[in-house]
Amino acid sequence: xxxxxxxxxxxxxxxxxxxxxxxxxxxxxxxxxxxxxxxxxxxxxxxxxxxxxxxxxxxxxxxxxxxxxxxxxxxxxxxxxxxxxxxxxxxxxxxxxxxxxxxxxxxxxxxxxxxxxxx
Length: 119
Prior knowledge:
Layout: E1 3-8, H1 12-23, E2 28-33, H2 39-46, E3 50-53, H3 62-70, E4 80-84, E5 94-95, E6 98-102, H4 107-117
Parallel strand pairs: 1-2, 1-3, 3-4, 4-6
Antiparallel strand pairs: 5-6
């Protein structure tokens, strides 16, 4: 059974490119959500094994989505990886204890992150 990955990011072209690349591996089912205010309902329907979450989005930022995810009994244990273009040179690869990867990201980097987060 293939693992499920949800990508929450307001950049539709970016999410579609990542989805296409991951689906070509035939290892994952991938769903994208470009409206962060719908991320929780999408996650509940899709039941992902991993969520990639952008930080800077309109209306509801990644922190707000994460707060709602971790306060939902059905979703609180789903691993979340922040995917962002905003990374300071002195910043580590975590934000508030969550793994963070910077955009742009290669498919090899993405696969490494997935393998570390999905058992």
